[in-house]
Design brief:
binds zinc ion; 342 residues; Herpes Virus-1; 2 domains; HRD1_E3_ubiq-ligases; 3-stranded antiparallel β-sheet; 3 strands; elongated; transmembrane helix; transmembrane; zinc-finger
Length: 342
């Protein structure tokens, strides 16, 4: 037998085995355990390169196997005959690969952003950035080339939107990293860094949200016109609840809280010299010197910008936890608008 014959025979054998392993749900579960082990090893290897520890936020035990079964059931792979079954298996594996890239991105983002705000070795900056080489090249090489093959349009759109979402997340992470680094090492962005970060995250969040909506519409198209089924419907409801409804709710409440914090703090009275002296001229939020400050109704004084940031997260006094949800937080309940402090 020539080398070509051996290769062809082996390929045939692998195809036959894979075809048979997608024949029943029980076989799919067997295959899923193998997928789980392989992607678990892959993820562990990548996390090792990135320098992530096992307790890192975002690291989950390999959920790939579970996803593999769901995708198989959703696409009804067991009932498909001929070479289409292997094609579908390939499509599901590509989706799974992009899903795993999203998992890696979540962990990498934590490491990259931590490196930008803490004093760490250069390696801790470089190592978690290595996967981004894949995140940015994969959509332009693999995903783009898939469009040349006769895959279903809906799948091509889904994989492209899913990869685009990954690129948006990656761009957000790397840009925030650069803004943080610029802020730490230069004096240009001192006052504005919070605003820049807020608006930047808001724009990226909206783009990600648009990808989520697109994926939902694409899923709905597949459900109504290509392949329905209860599993797909459940997956769509989960996607809608977790990636669209929850995201929209979180985004809106962040925006409202920030908006109200800005409005409230702008109305506060400036602190008097005696009030500053009581605090030893130190801001209780940032521990930096205070030459100018604002005073809230419990008579505690803070830097205006520090208090704005604080109230954007929680509406309580950082020192005495007094409720600061009301509109008028000034100690005197008159309507004099204080001069804004520069
Ligand atoms: Zn401060
Ligand atoms: Zn207080």
């Amino acid at each position: 037998m020539s080398q070509d014959d051996i290769f062809n025979t082996l390929t045939m054998l692998v195809k036959e085995v894979l075809f048979a392993m997608c024949g029943t749900i029980l076989c799919i579960m067997g295959l899923a355990s193998m997928v789980s082990i392989i992607s678990g090893l892959g993820l562990r290897f990548v996390f090792g390169i990135m320098g992530a520890h096992d307790d890192e936020e975002g690291i989950q035990p390999a959920v790939s196997g579970f996803l593999f079964v769901l995708l198989a059931m959703q696409t009804g792979i067991t009932s498909i005959t001929g070479s289409n079954r292997l094609m579908l298996l390939f499509q599901n594996c590509v989706l799974l690969f992009v899903a795993n890239q999203h998992v890696v991105q979540t962990v990498a983002a934590n490491l990259v952003l931590r490196a930008s705000t803490e004093e760490v070795a250069v390696a801790n900056h470089v190592r978690p950035m290595l996967p981004y080489l894949v995140f940015f090249t994969f959509p332009f090489t693999v995903v783009a080339s898939l469009w040349h093959y006769p895959f279903r349009m809906s799948w091509l759109l889904a994989i492209s939107a899913f990869s685009l979402e990954l690129m948006i997340k990656s761009t957000t992470t790397l840009s925030i990293y650069m803004i943080n680094m610029f802020h730490t090492h230069t004096n240009y962005l001192q006052e504005n860094v919070e605003d820049i970060l807020f608006y930047f995250k808001a724009v990226c969040g909206c783009l990600e949200f648009a990808c989520g909506i697109f994926l939902l519409l694409n899923g709905a198209y597949i459900f109504f016109f290509e392949s329905g089924g209860i599993i797909r419907l459940v997956m769509m409801i989960i996607h809608f609840y977790c990636n669209i409804y929850q995201t929209a709710l979180k985004g809106w409440s962040t925006y409202k809280l920030r908006q109200s914090a800005w409005e409230k703090v702008n109305k506060l009275q400036p602190a008097s010299q005696e009030q500053l002296d009581e605090n030893d001229d130190i801001c209780p939020i940032c521990y930096q010197e205070m030459t100018e400050a604002v005073v809230v109704k419990c008579s505690h004084v803070f830097h205006k910008a520090c208090l704005q940031k604080w109230l954007s997260i929680q509406e309580k006094c950082p020192l005495c936890h007094m409720d600061l949800t009301e509109d008028n937080l000034s100690p005197q309940s008159n309507n004099n608008i204080a001069q804004p402090i520069r």
